[in-house]
Fold HAUS augmin-like complex subunit 4 isoform X1.
Amino acid sequence: MASRDFCSPGEGMEILQHACSKQLPPCNLREEDLLQRLYLSKLLLSLSQHADGSGLSLTLAKEQAQAWKEVRLHKTTWLRSEILQRVIQKLLVDYYVKTQNTNLTSDNKTFHETLEQWLLVTELTWLVSPSQEREMPPLLGLEKVDLLELMPPSEDCAWMRAWLKLEMEEELKKKCFTLLCYHDPNSDADSETLKAAKVWKLAEVLVDEKQQGQDAKSQQKEQMVLLEKKSATYSQVLLCCLALLQRLLQGHRLKTQSELDCIDAQYLEIKCSAMILKLRMEEIKILSDTYTAEKVEVHCLIRDRLEGAIRLQEQDMEKSRQVLNTYEVLREELDRLVKEHTQLKQVTENKC
């Protein structure tokens, strides 16, 4: 039983594709993680049965979907009333613009004045109506009955509503055609009947396009998860390759370092010998440029004369050395004779 606590390689890949990428939020798990960690695959499968892709529980996700459905319903209702309100305001603005340039018919004036009065009284009635949550004092002391007295006559209101329906249909048709031309510029040249048919199908087309966008977004999300997993895997493989290359380079470098040192030593030795030979060649070149054949011959003659003069000086020095040696032998006798001569010279000087 303990062996079933780990999932097989095929089961691990299936769990990753089914649970981690679709039902659970994106998680950076690899198949090796499921193969090495105890009970992790079963835990992921259990979580995938109780959680959706956003991480919420299925019950909470259902409640959230219902809440969003109600929000969209209220939003649709509000948008519908807001569109009608803006269309009516646009009709009034267009009426004010036309009064500055053209002469309108009495029916047209009556319609817009009745519409404006009816709209104003309706808005004021809504403002002075008490809130449903708590009782509030009426605005300016006015009651709803006081404002309803300002409503146009019922005949004018019924006639205005009939005309307003036609005007709003025409205005909404223009807006729908404008939206259609914005969505499909090629439909601008179509007839009104064809445009109306396209507008009737425009909501379905937009829903389909929105669904396609959501599907594309989901696919992109899945592709991003796969890309992150592949990036992590490729990064680990590259790091392993770099470590292997580093070991190979270090081993190769230690093996060939001695050979490189020997080659460098031989190179330096040869380079040093070449430099010595080059210096010797430059020295010989300088000597050959300095001492020509005539200069060498003259130097030879000078050397011969100097050597002859040196020999004569050596002969004279040898004779002088012999004389000195003789004087050295007769030095005592000469000293005695010098003393006698000195004494005789003094006696002679004294007699004189």
In short: The CA atoms of residues 119 and 189 lie 37 Å apart. DSSP finds ten helices and no strands in the chain. The mean pLDDT is 77. The two ends are 159 Å apart (CA to CA).
